[in-house]
Write a structure and sequence with these properties.
The chain has helices spanning 7-10, 34-39, 111-117, 121-130, 141-145, 154-192, and strands at 3-6, 11-15, 25-32, 42-43, 49-51, 67-70, 72-73, 82-85, 93-94, 98-103, 137-138, 148-151. It is α+β, with helices and mostly antiparallel strands. It has a single domain (3-151), classed as Alpha-Beta Complex (Adenine-n6-DNA-methyltransferase TaqI, Chain A, domain 2). The strands form 4 sheets. It has a 5-stranded mixed beta sheet with strand order 2-10-6-8-4. Strands 5-3-9 form a 3-stranded mixed beta sheet. α3 crosses α6. It is globular and about 65 Å long. The protein starts with a strand and ends with a helix.
């Protein structure tokens, strides 16, 4: 049975990097880039950029299960894109154009399920309603935390997450096969008419 839950009761938000300029990027510690959050429902640490973090500097680090949201976009339909960290990592940071959401318990909100849920059409429609602006759209963390969402029990979340993950893996295999067939076709076309 699905139950209505308030996002603010399930977790808390935190900010990405602050006080950085272009000279601080390209070396140092890994950080999750805006494009990573925008493009995919799951973060891959190997695709992170790098940022200089000084020894006594106070910056928020990310953790397994954190959900990241983009805060600004040129269109309301692209606001609040999300991605979830499904890898364990040491000292990794988040870009300044996103904010993090950390669930209080994985017994209430499963990370793999989150990666699909926060990208679902139903949730995206709720996010779009929160978009503020006219030429550039922004998402308020405060308003997001007021959202009520309908969630299944933990066992159902795990089942849904694993099933959708299995389908994603199958799609990747099929894409790879298609690429191989295209390469074979290209080879044959180049060599058949010689």
């Amino acid at each position: 049975m699905w139950k209505l839950k308030n996002l603010g009761d399930l977790g808390a938000t935190y900010n990405g990097l602050s006080g950085k300029n272009k000279d601080n990027f390209g070396f140092g510690k890994p950080y999750i880039q805006y494009k990573q959050v925008f493009d995919s429902s799951k973060i891959e640490i190997k695709n992170c950029g790098f940022v200089e973090i000084l020894e006594n500097e106070k910056q928020n680090t990310v953790r397994y299960g954190d959900v990241f949201f983009t805060v600004s976009s040129e269109t309301s339909k692209e606001i609040g894109m999300s991605s979830v960290l499904l890898e364990h990592t040491n000292e990794t940071y988040l870009n300044s154009f996103c904010f993090g959401y950390r669930p209080f318990s994985f017994q209430v909100l499963n990370p793999l399920f989150s990666s699909y849920f926060f990208r679902s059409e139903i949730f995206r429609n709720e996010i779009i309603k929160l978009a503020q602006g006219s030429t550039r759209y922004n998402l308020s963390k405060v308003e997001l935390m007021k959202l009520n969402i309908s969630l299944p029990c933990l066992d159902e979340q795990i089942t849904i997450g694993e099933f959708l993950s299995f389908i994603d893996a199958k799609i990747q295999i099929e894409k790879k096969l298609l690429r191989n067939y295209q390469l074979k076709k290209q080879y044959l076309l180049q060599n058949l008419f010689i």
